[in-house]
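Why does residue order matter? Because the sequence determines the fold. Keep that principle in mind as you read this record.
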Amino acid sequence: MFEHLRHWLSRRRRSSARHPNTADLPSPRRLDSTAFADQRLIVLDLETTGLNPARDEVIAIGAVAIDRMSIPLGNQFDLILRRPELDIRETVLIHGIGPESLQRGHETEDALLRLLQWMNGDPILAFHAAFDRRFLEKALKKQLGYTASHAWLDVAEILPALFPDATAGKGRLDDWVDRFGLTVSERHHAAADAMATAELALIALRYASRKNIHSLADLDATLRVGRRIQQLKNH
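Structure:
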């Protein structure tokens, strides 16, 4: 029995040494009735080594804040991670992040801690949010032992729900950017894609307010109804 306890304590000590203390990080906020005009949101985009969360890894993080229905240009997050061990040959032509950038990047653990502090527990928006969510949650658990669940909404779902008659090609980020005549400084760059997504999200939130949708809880309820209607149509 004492031998078993000794091994258990040893494993606990090794686990604590591997991961930093995240107990003091801000707690994630839920999708509540806070008005858009009083809300801070995080718009996130990741660059990865591929499309498979089980095999591929995050190499760059871009994020923009929407604070009280505006985008403060000085309140952004843009970091390439230090991951020189990763094979990026299949994706370097897409995101342009080469071996030298990964060698000079920020230490992954430190970057993720800074991201969590900067996000301050605020709800997260992303374009095709399930992709970014799976990759981010994997990285946070692996690097920090962090498993708190943040609130996410998908801008790729919000836009067609609010603008069902809009013609936006195949519904890609580029299609919606073109639909609303936005200018993107650079594509497949995490910070630039986050900014484009934030601008689209801001258009959607302003339009939602005119439709009597004034909070993330209202918006989430609208999306749930839309999903249910679509399910009934498919049966």
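The longest helix spans residues 190-210.
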